[in-house]
Amino acid sequence: MIAYISGDPFNYVDLGPSTAMPVVFIHGFPFDHEMWRPQLDAVSKTHRAIAYDLRGHGMSFVGDGQFTIEGHVNDLLGLLDSLNISRCVVAGLSMGGYIALRALERNPERFSAAVLCDTRSEADGNEGKLKRFSAVANVKKNGSIEFAKGFVQVAFAPQSFATRAEAIQRITKTIEHTPPLSIAGTQLALASRTDTTGSLANIAVPTLILVGENDTITPPTASQAMHEKIPGSKLHIIPNAGHVSNLENPEEFNRHLLVFLKQVQPLHT
Ligand code: MLT
Predict the structure, then answer these.
(1) What is the pLDDT of residues 72-104, one digit of tens each?
(2) Is 70 exceeded by the pLDDT of residue 268?
(3) Which of 176, 179, 209, 254 could cross-link to 235 by cystine, CB 3.0-4.6 Å?
(4) Comparing C-alpha atoms, which of 98, 90, 118, 58 is closest to residue 247?
(5) How many whole angstroms from 206 Cα to the centroid of ligand 1?
(6) What b/e readout covers 225-245, taking b as 16+ CB neighbours within 10 angstroms?
(7) What is the C-alpha to C-alpha distance for residues 169 and 32, in angstroms, rounded to an integer?
(8) Which residues does 39 contact at the CB level (< 8 Å), separation at least 6?
């Protein structure tokens, strides 16, 4: 389906019972909403499950290729408004988590619970920023197919190439179809994101933190640090998974997600 946010077209899916508690899934970089398929299938049995393609990704509007995490938060709120959703559970993986964390900091009244997956609250340090600037130069020079090759090697745990080959193939194709303009623009958005660590203690909604045991991009130590600061949060380390834990071990990931959502529902519908 298409929603128009500030006049720009966004691709999204809206599944499950329309009167149930909405759960909005935000994908990581540089994926699209399909990365949430195992969660959408499971969650939509009991909840309204919404996932969309971020600006510059999937089938959503690319525009001039200049993005910020702040702009992605504006888009998220615009999507909620266009769907008449006053409060939702927000679930974000990696970049999706950065967007969720800034949205929780800026507009806490729009959220009834949070699921933070393979993400972190700290902004990039100098070394991280420099790595992104060289990735920008590389993707502009060599294109998205080359970028995809390098990215999946880092993002997925080594064992997943044998056990989850199909999921990795699908993600690789998604990255290959993402324009270099979007990959470059998103790297700059990631490099310029603000640090949300200072506001973690203010998160007053039930929060679930999930991370792959072999995540090297946003490692379990980053999740542990958020868990220590977010009051009452729950943390689970997903075995046999790297940075894309929802696809590398969907069974374990969904088990924790569904238990959490069941507990949230009676308090926050
Ligand atoms: C993501 O998966 O969204 C990115 O790897 C996040 C990042 O590079 O910081």
Answers:
(1) 999 999 999 999 999 999 999 999 999 999 999
(2) no
(3) 209
(4) 118
(5) 24
(6) ebbeebeebbbbbbebbbbbb
(7) 14
(8) 25, 49, 91, 246, 250, 253, 254, 257
Please give the single-letter amino acid code of residue 235: L
pLDDT digits (tens, 9 = 90+) for 111-165: 999 999 999 999 999 999 999 999 999 999 999 999 999 999 999 999 999 999 9
Full-model pTM: 0.97
Enumerate residues lining ligand 1, CB below 6 A. 28-29, 94-95, 190, 217
The sign of the torsion formed by the CA atoms of 81, 83, 89, 92 equals: negative
DSSP category for residue 15: E
| Nearest of 161, 42, 151, 50 to residue 96 by alpha carbon | 50
Cα 87 to averaged position of ligand 1 atoms, centre (Å): 26
Whether 269 has a pLDDT exceeding 90, the answer reads: no
Ligand 1 centroid, distance to 36 Cα (angstroms): 15
Say how far apart CA 103 and CA 47 lie, in whole Å.
Answer: 21
